[in-house]
Amino acid sequence: MNFINIAKEHHLFLNKVCRVQGNKKSEVKRSLLAFSFQETELEETHLIIELARHQYTEDYIQLTKDFYLKM
Length: 71
What we know:
Layout: H1 3-9, E1 13-21, E2 28-36, E3 43-48, E4 50-52, E5 55-56, H2 58-64
Parallel strand pairs: 1-3
Antiparallel strand pairs: 1-2, 4-5
């Protein structure tokens, strides 16, 4: 049984999924999941971290700038 089905059994519904890739050519390495007690339409997004080594995408910079001093 997968995690999403276990959550649903406890009345938690998947509302958002963000699939994360290191770069455009790499496979999806992580999926960030957001659950709530209200069932809504699933919102799916995609995040690519780097364009090239240590050259970060604008989406990644905006997401992490409050946590990293050199962003």
